[in-house]
Automatic annotation (TrEMBL):
This is Uncharacterized protein.
Length: 36
């Protein structure tokens, strides 16, 4: 039971972090293209 809760928490955190990183990289890439 506790293991399931921990796994869920970890996967939710991972999803949030990866989406934040993806947004950050997308913005950086768009900014680079905007400079040209």
């Amino acid at each position: 039971m506790i293991t399931t809760i921990l796994l869920t928490a970890v996967s939710v955190t991972t999803a949030t972090v990866s989406s934040t990183i993806a947004k950050h990289f997308t913005k950086k890439i768009l900014d680079k293209f905007g400079e040209k």
